[in-house]
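Morning!

This is the sequence you dropped in the shared folder:
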Amino acid sequence: MTMDIAPPLPKRHRIKFPPADAHRLAQDEVFFHLVEDGEPVKLRFHDYAEIYKRPGLYEQLFYDRLKCSSPKKVGELLQRALQTACEPFTELRVLDLGAGNGIMGEELKSRGVARLVGADLIPEAREAAHRDRPEVYDDYYVEDFTQLSSETRERLGEWHFDCLTCVAALGFGDIPPRAFFNAMKMIRTDGWLAFNIKSSFLDASDQAGFSRFIRELIFSEYLDVYHLELYRHRLSMEGTQLFYYALVGRMTSSIPDDFLVRHLIEG
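The structure's back. Tokens below.
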């Protein structure tokens, strides 16, 4: 008789949050200290390359300590939208933009999508996804979507994507409007979009490029919104609830190449 040996649990990291006066930083400037070999290493929450190099750190920081719920929420709303449209979730061919180490991909895979391709800007993300979740993605691209080569566009097009997901990666410069727009152009004309954004990005007073782009897209003739839900994305370091919108919509027609320029949203 053979006995299956469980894989080793990820190393538990020593994470220390800074004093309360540091909590007034903007969300993309927030940092923490990681104690390694007795010495504190300062890392910003958006220092993804360094975080991904350390197995289990991303999950421990954002999911164990800060209770991030976004992959599950966006996955649930996407599946509900497909049910509303009477279409099988298991036939979706998904491009997961800003895939990181595969947490959203794992959520989609558990729901049975047909094909799943990850994409991220940094090689450390792909390395972490292959290390932590080797069975999730059918392929994984490390590409700058603001300047895709014709060869890469052709390769991506061969997947015939009908859904774009992007979770916890929009609006802080990690994925600029042009990158998200180019990823949208990879999706078939009647394909699906599923993503989340910080709640303030839908406020008309926010004139940042990405906020303007999302508002223009939502109210355009190119997207039918199926779900727009305000929910708790995660906690801040001091325990305050951070609210995001989860959005699931369906493309209604091919969005023009000059959509960004016409609305002065380029950035």
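Headline: The two ends are 61 Å apart (CA to CA).

More detail when I'm at my desk.
O.
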